[in-house]
Amino acid sequence: MTSIKNLLTTFIFLVLAFSFTACGGEERADRTSQPDTQEEGLTEFELEHGIGPITEKITLDDELDPEKIEKGRNIYEMKCEMCHNMQGRMVGPPLAGVTETRTPEFIMNFILNPRENIDRHPVGQALLREYLTQMPYQNVSEEDARALVEFMRDYDANL
Amino acid sequence: MKKDKTQKLRSLFVGIGLIAAAGLILAGCPSQQGMMDTREAAQKVYVAPGEHDEYYGFFSGGYSGQLSVWGLPSGRFLKVIPVFSQDPETGYGYSEETKPLLQTSYGFIPWDDSHHPHISQTNGDADGRWIYINANNTPRIARIDLQTFETKEILELPNTGGNHASSFVTSNSEYVIGATRFSIPYEMDLDVPIDSYSEEFRGALSFIELDPETGMMNMGFQIIVPPYNYDLGRAGKGVSEDWVFFTTYNTEEAHTMLEVNASRNDKDYIAAVNWRRAAELVSNGHGETMSAEYYHNYYEGNQGFAINDVKDQVTVLTPEDGQEFIYFLPTPKSPHGVDIDPTGEYIAAGGKLATVIPVHSFSRMIEAIENRDFEGNVENIPILSYDATIAGEVENPGLGPLHTEFDGRGYAYTSVYISSEIVKWSLETFEVVDRIDAYYSIGHLMITGGDTKNPDARYLVGLTKTAKDRYLPTGPKQNHPAQLYDISGDRMELLLDFPTIGEPHYAQAIRADKITQNVKQIYEMEENDHPHALLRIADNRVERDGDVVRIYMGSTRSHFRPDNIEGIRVGDTVYIHLTNLEQEWDVVHGIAVKGAQNSEILVAPGQTKTLKWEPTRTGIYPFYCTAFCSALHQEMQGYIRVSAADSDVSLVWRTGTN
User: Fold this and answer.
1) Which CATH architecture is the domain B532-654 placed in?
2) Looking at the predicted structure, is the pLDDT value of residue B196 above 90?
3) B289: how many CB neighbours lie within 10 A of its CB?
4) What is the mean pLDDT of residues A101-124?
5) B481-504, pLDDT tens digit by residue?
6) In chain B, what residues touch A91 (CB-CB under 8 Å)?
7) pLDDT of the residue at B589
8) CB pairs under 8 A between A and B
9) Do B583 and A139 touch (CB under 8 A)?
């Protein structure tokens, strides 16, 4: 008797649950449910190297390019330093050591396409939860982003 | 008996018919609301959320002094571009960068009356690069850059009272024109009795050269003309592109009670000026240099403070016998608008008090000049014979025809003020073919893509003078309406009615893609050449030079640097140079300081703007970001400590260290 009752309750529950979710449509379900990550939509490459215009591995010389470092430093001071210290938390995370934890492609994609990486990439989503501020696109070209990578590599090499 | 009855009936019908016909002849076809089915009308003006309008509409702000921007056909309000009046919403005319734009030879003028916006042209078509607009009261012309929708330049016109016949550009933006509405003594600051009008007063027609690359203005020359009122103007097109036309009234030379005294003559004139010939005469040394003080205000680089380039001379050209560059076309009766059809052949005048719309023919005008078909001359300006130049008179145009635009399909549309209607007439037969009511008392009208060689005449906008019951009442003063009509078919049909800002006089509309392709989303930091820009956030600082303190401040979401400042003293003049280091579209920061006798200053991404502040009391002054910029916008604030004039609190600034 109890088991039938239980079965009935479960059934009613299921029907109710179904009627609540089914009619919302896909769009509403997307808006209300916020899974920790949405890794399914990302390629292997994107998971490792971020989402953006850099879609292939880039080759880095072991030797650092002083011209690129200088250019990268200038861009950092004009467009990044307002929110990122090299050491210590500010509006955003500190940048020291970033070339050791992220690939150069990831760094470039994040600079070039911050919104999508924050919206869809698990790393971006985690960063937003921690810092609560969306990193903006700062009108940085691909070439400039590459120079920023060089500047950060140089910084990390001298840590 | 039966026959008699039929005859009676017949005569009754004939009688009614005659009365109706007489009514028709006397009044013309009555205007109608001409409103299409509301659902169909709504569909035609509906632009779905997130979608864009097909046209930009630029409406003069009239006594607001500004230029408002609208999406058409939806009637969506897009923005107000401040031009001739201070605007606390943006800090225009309050920031140190923009204050110099409002300087004139009469000092700082915080207000004016803007009338006729006109988009720059290439080959007779609006090119969407700049838009010019005139100030009527303290005579000036402004240039607005349509990449940033900001006023970039203002030029004062000397020897001019009431710059109304302005700011119309020629077919390739060679010149923008201006003119005297109220004739005044020609020499600077001449102190004479008002009743010396005919002897001492003169009109001036101004030809301002435009730089083809930058759109910058340069006072080319002025033509000295008799002391009439020069009311409106237009540049020719196609066959007449070397000419500009001005209407005149008050050929009676009245200087009091013009309402009566300037309405006596049956005909006044349209002045036809061959600007190319006039410019040649000037470059061949026929002009004369006279002293005049006027301001030319503009930016030298991408950013920074507008400068005041004070001029002390102007070149004037006084018509001499045989120079063949200016003619008068007699035109009834106190004409207001003068409008040129897309081919350049027809010159339509709106005689405020005339019973017809007179239409002159450009080719007949040229013929009459060649045949020396003159009725006389005034001050060496030949007067052509009316019969020699007239191509047709539009009968029954209603009462008080003012302005005409053309659809490029053989029809003209004239606004008629007193009977408050728009009449459509044929350029072939000069007959009215359609008419529609305007609510109420229509002034200017404009057609999308109008006043060009190729109007894409989908819509017509009528700009009326009173709203009365059209909208929810808002007190004794209602805002001025704009009414949108569909003119793609044979009959005009009313689609939409919406209130505007200020008093829109003329307006222009241009296909949106001609502008959107050039619109800037940010000021690029790399191109920020402001002398006080903060190009590296690490350089944020405060500098003192005597009583002048400069704060070099940066902003990004969601803080200012520096945000704690001490060592300011009562009696200091403080300049806060705020650079918005954001490079993302539409992320704007503002700054306001408690007690500052100034407005807030809004700073677009990549821009540097300066707030001047003269603290008069000691204390702690909070400042904050006025534009909601981020989730932590409420945290975007700071403090400035103001000490006594003789205090020795040292100048310090910091951010992020409690």
Assistant:
1) Sandwich (2.60)
2) yes
3) 9
4) 97
5) 999 999 999 999 999 999 999 999
6) 556-559
7) 97
8) 51
9) yes
Q: What is the pLDDT of residue B354?
A: 85
| Terminal alpha carbon distance of chain A | 72
Q: What's the pLDDT tens digit per position in B276-286?
A: 999 999 999 99
User: Rounded distance, CA B356 to CA B362, Å?
Assistant: 19
Which 8-state DSSP code applies to residue A137?
P
The reply to whether domains B43-516 and B532-654 share a CATH topology is: no
With CA atoms as reference, report the closest residue to B594 among B567, B563, B617.
Answer: B617
Distance CA A74, CA A80 (A): 10
Using alpha carbons, select from B201, B186, B206 the residue that is nearest to residue B246: B206
Mean of all residue pLDDT scores within chain B: 94
Domain boundaries, chain B: 43-516, 532-654
A78 closest CB neighbour out of B536, B557, B656: B536
Select B43-516's CATH number: 3.90.226.10, 2.40.30.270, 2.130.10.10, 2.40.160.20.
Answer: 2.130.10.10
Question: Is the Cβ of B491 closer than 8 Å to some Cβ of chain A?
Answer: no
B558 has a chain A CB within 8 A of its CB: yes
CB atoms inside a 10 Å sphere around CB A15 = 10
Q: What angle do CA B385, B387, B392 make, to 5 degrees?
A: 135
According to the model, what pLDDT value does residue A39 have? 55
B631 touches chain A (CB under 8 A): yes
Cβ atoms within 10 Å of B387's Cβ, excluding its own:
11
Chain B residue numbers with beta carbons less than 8 Å from the beta carbon of A77 are 536-538
Between chains, do A82 and B522 touch, taking CB under 8 Å as contact?
A: no
Query: For an interface test with A, which of B540, B552, B584 has the most A Cβ atoms less than 10 Å from its Cβ?
Result: B584
pLDDT in tens, B49-101: 999 999 999 999 999 999 999 999 999 999 999 999 999 999 999 999 999 99
Q: The complex's ipTM? A: 0.79
- % residues pLDDT > 90 (chain B): 91
φ, ψ (nearest 5 deg) of residue B525:
-55, -35
